[in-house]
Design goal:
Strand order of the largest sheet: 2-3-5-4
Strand content: 5-15%
Helix content: 55-70%
Number of strands: 9
Shape: elongated
Distance between the termini: 9 Å
Length: 512
């Protein structure tokens, strides 16, 4: 027994190491993969701007729509994108302190009215400076990027770089497909693209002249000085402002997954862990139904195939086994939806979803039979997908395990004692044959909680699988990482649980 507990102790000690390696790799890949939360937000802003414009501008007008540098910096700080990957990972894990921000309440401000009256005055000074700057930018047809004023490229600039500007014009005419190449070309010159205009920073000479560009540069400095004054005023209380007029208490503290802080989903605007837990019941429902259906079908089928080994029944059912092995579960769901989902054939099952929209209303009205029938119809196709996924492997495992035991010495001894064939098979041989299958219960925990990405996507089931798929598409980092943490922990503990079950039910197993 001591050897077994030593083995499981070692396995448990490997769980944190394995967890750290897996999560760090995924975290690093997410950080270096393009299309993060900032890009996703800008894409949404461009799509909204294009919709408001009616789509008549050919898509060029939306290029100038996006976050300014200050908003980008705030989002980078919120998602730890401004930190090196190893440090950001440690902060996400909760073993290295990071800056946390909580909003300043109105009750807190009432305790020191004079201080906050001064803060409001400084804020008004900043807003007035910002308003003057924006008006000057509009008058001069200029832009601001960080602490730099941008002006449209002039004819003199074109004469300095004729070849590159001609190439840039051609890339601009190439449309969206050439936009990344155009941006790289302009970045090499220190320029940028705004709509269909090429913009460059104003020069030192231009900032010292009496033109509108120089006025904007001075107003920009005034604006930044006003904002710094507000920051310095709030610094003694460890409070920071943002440029939208909000104030936050700031402190450095441990805040990560070890403290139960999985971050906030920018897609759902909720705590990531809350979103995930809300999906658990649906995935558990379909996973449990599918797993029970697999046992109810595959175990009797495997037993029948073993008893009739090489017979007509075994040969005929082998065709079904190989079809199940070759057909992925989500493909089987697609075929069933085409056949029975109201397409070109029968309309027997819904095209997807967990329940019909009127299910809660039916339940409140006492139409329990209607609710049950509706739930069954929504369950049939996904359940078949889960069944097909493990149909072949469990059936063959059951058959081969029973055949091995039927050829064992203890079975021949039982027959020699005069026991009936039914008792020998179903009492003696079957119990030992179920050991390999029973030991796989621990692995089932992963499917039970995590669901199936493809099956839930095809059947439009709002469970963990579909949540994970949509989070990857939308680059919702908090949801992706929270799903990863839960999935890794479930699978690691599930593997240990499987070994423990095997050791408990099979006296021949000895872990050393």
């Amino acid at each position: 027994m001591s050897g077994m507990w030593t083995y499981f102790t070692r396995r448990l000690l490997l769980v944190p190491v394995t967890f750290i390696v897996i999560t760090f790799i995924v975290y690093a890949v997410l950080r270096i993969t393009p299309g993060g939360p900032i890009q996703q937000l800008e894409n949404q802003m461009r799509a909204a701007a294009a919709g408001e414009a009616g789509g008549g501008g050919g898509g060029l007008g939306g290029e100038s729509v996006g976050l300014d540098e200050k908003a980008r910096d705030e989002l980078k700080a919120y998602y730890n994108l401004d930190q090196p990957i190893p440090l950001a990972y440690l902060q996400w894990l909760g073993v290295y302190p990071k800056k946390t921000r909580t909003p300043v309440t109105l009750e807190y401000r009432r305790d020191d009215a004079d201080f906050w009256q001064q803060s409001q005055q400084l804020w008004n000074d900043y807003r007035e400076a910002e308003h003057r700057l924006q008006q000057s930018l509009i008058d001069g047809d200029l832009l601001v990027s960080g602490d730099t004023i941008l002006i449209e490229v002039t004819a003199a600039d074109r004469s300095r770089f004729p070849e590159k500007l001609n190439q840039a014009d051609q890339l601009l005419a190439g449309g969206v497909s050439s936009r990344s190449q155009l941006n790289r070309l302009l970045s090499g010159l220190g320029w940028s693209l705004s709509g269909s205009r090429f913009m460059r920073p104003i020069t030192t000479q231009e900032s010292g002249e009496a033109g509108i560009a120089a006025v904007c540069q001075r107003q920009l400095l005034v604006q930044e000085d006003s904002y710094r004054s507000l920051q310095q005023h709030l610094l003694p209380l460890n409070i920071e402002p943002n440029r939208n007029g909000s104030y936050y208490h700031v402190k450095n503290a441990l805040s990560g997954i070890l403290q139960g802080d999985f971050g906030r989903s920018f897609t759902y605007n909720k705590d990531a862990l809350t979103v995930i837990i809300s999906k658990f019941p649906i995935s558990i429902y379909f996973g449990l139904i599918g797993y029970l259906a697999t046992w109810l079908v595959c175990i009797p089928l495997g037993i029948s195939k073993a008893i009739r080994h090489r017979g007509a029944f075994d040969t005929a059912t082998s065709v079904l086994v190989f079809l199940g092995y070759a057909t992925p579960g989500f493909v089987a769901c697609l075929l069933l939806l085409v056949l029975f989902g109201g397409g070109s054939y029968w309309n027997l099952v819904p095209l997807g979803g967990f329940r019909s929209p009127d299910w809660n209303q039916w339940w409140q009205q006492g139409q329990y039979l209607t609710c049950a029938i509706d739930q069954i119809k929504h369950t049939l196709v996904p359940m078949f997908g889960y069944l097909v996924g493990s149909f072949a492997s469990m059936t063959v495992l059951m058959k081969n395990s029973l055949l091995d035991n039927l050829g064992a010495d203890y079975v021949r001894t039982a027959f020699a004692k005069g026991l009936t064939e039914r008792r020998v098979i179903y009492v003696h041989a079957l119990r030992n044959s179920l050991i390999p299958i029973t030991a796989g219960i621990g692995h089932f925990l992963g499917l039970l909680f995590a669901g199936s990405f493809l099956i839930e996507k095809v059947c439009n089931i709002p469970g963990m699988g579909l949540l994970g798929y949509e989070s990857i598409i939308r680059r919702d980092y908090p949801i992706i990482l929270a799903t990863l943490v839960i999935g890794v922990l479930i699978r690691l503990t599930g593997n240990i649980f499987s070994d423990l079950i095997w050791a408990l039910i099979d006296p021949r197993i000895r872990f050393k």
